Amino acid sequence: MKPKSFVLTNGPSPIYRVIVYLFALPAVAAIPVGVPGGVVEIRLPLSTKNVFFNEVQQLRLDNRAIVALPLTTKVGDHAIIVQSSKSRTELPFKVIAKTYREQHLTIENQRLVEPLPSDLERIEAESALMQNVYSQFSPMPKRLRPITRPVQGVVTSEFGFRRFFNGQPRNPHSGVDIAAEHGTAVKSPAAGVIRVVGNFFFNGNTVLVDHGGGFISMLCHLNTVNVRHRQRIEQDSIIGTVGATGRATGPHLHWSVSLQGTRVDPLIFIAVINASANGE
Ligand SMILES: [Zn+2]
Fold first, then answer.
1. 153 C-alpha to ligand 1 centroid (Å)
2. What residues does the ion ligand 1 have nearby, CB within 5 Å?
3. Which end of the chain has less Cβ packing within 10 Å, N or C?
4. pLDDT of residue 17
């Protein structure tokens, strides 16, 4: 029979090695980590005036930058540029790989998969309108209250899914789809100003809400709309109801989060913002 002290007498035990590793961890964990399509929170010096990533100004909440990482962000080492009135410094962060699944969907109306030549003009005009909205926004909020999901329900399509409609590849999914019954109230995830109310070729009845600082929500496929252009709304104000207008396989809400023109995973964004909000 082996004596119980056998492990201890034979060099450093595995437990000891784990403890040494844990002490070594803070130096590693100090570098923030994100994924393509996510956001990464980086603490800022008090003197910070502006924060840039890839020459795009980033959302700031108190002494934190909420950095939007486009889906095309390369895995590896990156840095934000932090400007104060006197200096310009770089703060590093890492981007690690995330695998996005494929999703195959069947749309009965083939025209919504392969638009007619006469539809293309409308689609291009709608796309230009969206780009214009995403490039202009009201000032940064000093802080954000914890963000709420616009409807409760099962997420049926995650952000970043590589999508195929009737077998044809299309752009990665730019938001989350939350299934809910026809007519369920859709609430604003944060306070803001209504920037767009319209009916769009792919997105159906759609509302865009400017929450400030480049944070813009898009809510699509609505059955009814309860708000009007330029209306100021509070968090949880009812924007409309769940429907299946536009390119939809059934009633659900599509919710996109745009940060300074970059679409990010709304669920990662909520998790990061709400973790900070609860910590204060
Ligand atoms: Zn969607």
1. 14
2. 177, 254
3. N
4. 58
